[in-house]
Design brief:
This protein has 154 residues and is mainly α. 64% of the residues lie in helices and 8% in strands. The two termini are 26 Å apart.
């Protein structure tokens, strides 16, 4: 489902069916990213950064590999995003037991940034949930978890 960025009160635009499940999911992901980016942009955040802050608040300290696994992010993208976040002092990094492992955690500044952005994020969540209804909202979460698990197992 596509939700217009500036007019969620308008009926959804009719989009052509794409013959590829991946293309369909990516189109949805881009539309949602645009919506969430618009909400957190005034706070100097991108959705990818907000997601990492949120994941770290849930996991606590985690290896970079573990974080990438949790978010299904490739190491190059994650490394690049974490470097920006480290410069902004939103994440703390330390070396793990062996010299190759990097452990990532949410810093105090990162926690503050997450807290600041959470209301903007929650506003988008609430609008989407209202638009979709609780039953569809919950079903979409379940379907997406299942699709991720299937894709990862292949």
């Amino acid at each position: 489902m596509y939700i217009h960025l500036y007019g969620m009160d308008k009926p959804p635009k009719s989009l052509p069916n794409l013959p590829c499940l991946c293309a369909t999911f990516r189109r949805t992901a881009r539309a949602l990213s645009q919506l969430y980016d618009e909400a957190v942009r005034p706070l100097g955040l991108k959705t990818t950064q907000f997601t990492i802050l949120q994941a770290l608040s849930l996991t606590g300290e985690v290896s970079q590999g573990g974080l990438g696994e949790t978010l299904a992010l490739d190491s190059t993208t994650l490394t690049r995003t974490l470097a920006i976040m480290k410069r902004r002092k939103w994440v703390a990094m330390r070396q793990g037991r062996d010299g190759r492992e990097r452990l990532i955690s949410l810093s105090t500044a990162g926690r503050e940034q997450l807290d600041l952005a959470s209301s903007a994020w929650q506003g988008v969540q609430d609008r989407l949930r209202t638009q979709l209804g609780d039953e569809r909202w919950n079903a979409l979460f379940q379907e997406n978890r299942e699709m991720t698990a299937v894709a990862r197992a292949m």
